[in-house]
Write a structure and sequence with these properties.
alpha/beta
């Protein structure tokens, strides 16, 4: 994310992610010794949580992270290089909707449940009226082929980012939003928590607390 769209999106992301992190810390009684795997995340927003837990970050793609600040591992979320129960909790924010098919989502869910004694997996709610990645009302309710055609010139993301045709196509095809019931099917042993904005469910989080 770059340029003017990033400048618009960043303060919104900070507001909601800070609130999520505080809820996460309260739910799991997070302290400095809590072992957390941040799947698909970044180190910068953990600075917003005090005290910060012992975080390991796993991403599919190489990122410009500071390994002295937090350990970082390049890994596929569908096949994680960690032992069973290696972490107290797995935290995953706005990632699972970028997996293209149900099989991939199920594989990631199994790995999250395997390596984490608890987990919190958040995703934007497909039924919220504003699409979270483009900041555009109703865009995600359109047929996929319409989204590809309209993303460049009829979304907030397109107006500010000014992507090429192939970038716009890749952006749209990389998003598969889930509703609450769909997230519950992916994580059947979880409780679904709702994040509300203006009285509507903006995002949903599958939460499983540590045994005991």
């Amino acid at each position: 994310m770059r340029g003017r769209f990033a400048a618009l999106h960043r303060p919104l992301a900070r507001h909601f992610r800070t609130r999520r992190l505080r809820r996460f810390a309260k739910t799991f009684a997070v302290g400095p010794s809590t072992k957390v795997l941040d799947l698909g995340g970044d180190e910068y927003y953990w600075r917003w949580l005090s005290p910060c837990p012992a975080v390991t970050i796993a991403n599919l793609e190489s990122r410009d992270l500071n390994p002295r600040a937090m350990p970082w591992v390049q890994a596929d979320g569908r096949s994680l290089p960690f032992a069973d129960g290696a972490f107290d909790v797995v935290y995953c924010n706005s990632v699972i909707e970028h997996l293209a098919d149900a099989g991939s989502r199920a594989a990631m869910a199994r790995e999250i449940a395997r390596v984490g004694r608890g987990y919190a997996v958040q995703t934007p709610n497909r039924r919220f009226p504003v699409e979270a990645h483009t900041l555009t009302p109703g865009f995600h309710f359109l047929p996929r082929n319409w989204q590809v055609r309209l993303a460049r010139n009829f979304t907030v993301w397109g107006w500010l980012q000014r992507p090429g045709r192939e970038e716009a196509r890749g952006f749209v095809e990389n998003i598969r939003l889930l509703a609450e019931q769909e997230l519950q099917r992916v994580f059947p042993d979880a409780t679904i928590e709702r994040e509300r904005f203006l009285g509507l469910t903006k995002s949903v989080t599958a939460v499983r607390k540590q045994p005991g």
